[in-house]
Write the structure tokens for this entry.
Amino acid sequence: MDRSDIDPRGVDPSNHAQADAWDGAEGRYWAAHHRRFDAVLADHQPAFAAACGLGPDDDVLDIGCGTGATTLAAARTAERGTALGVDLSSPMLQVARSLARQQGVGNARFERADAQVHPFAPAGFDAAISRTGAMFFGDPDQAFANIRRALRPGGRLTLLTWQPSERNPWFAAFTGALLGTVPAPPPGSPGPFSMSEPERVSRLLARAGFCDVEVTGLARPATYGATVEDAHDFLLGLLGWMLQQRRPAERPRAAQALRETLAEHAGARGVQFDSATWIVSARRG
């Protein structure tokens, strides 16, 4: 692999923008509110964990591990094995390491790395997993080929990715309120919906050398806060940049529009929206 154009941080040029965001203000916000972000996907986690099919002796690679919830869960299951979580975000990894110490999970470790180009030990892992972390690669072909090399023959890959935006009404609700319009996610560009088309995902993984690719739909609620005000504060902190694209006079009304759509989705379990993900499974060929 020609690594001559990879910067000193170990990041491929195609991922520089992602590194700047996740290692900067966006990553700091996620780190500060990690429990809130984990709550969004809490109802998806059991099915994802079951699909990973981890065993007690597995060595696991967690791609885009964030603040480590999935890495720590994998390490507990692989109690005689290991779990390595990698991410571009130093602030989020600091939280992950702190949680591992607090929870006494000694077989989990965390490393800042760009999984697209990082020189993982060849055939060093039994399983690679990623919960909504694999959709942001600048060059997904290169990334999944690199991940395949890190897996032992027959090693398992399990991903949780978003289904198309039209099956995730939270997207239209939040962008419609704050931007005043619902943008179409750029096809093929890094982002939450870049792996939302099963045929594209299957072709991508096949090109990278994976086989037995299966894509299974999962529909579960996504929880954004315990109360309307709780969810409103959380989302404005996350998506406030959208307000900055509106004229100053429009911003109070946009913030109120967000509050109103959140109120429409408030219930006994908090503020919840329907959401849909794919569980993608494959094996190293």
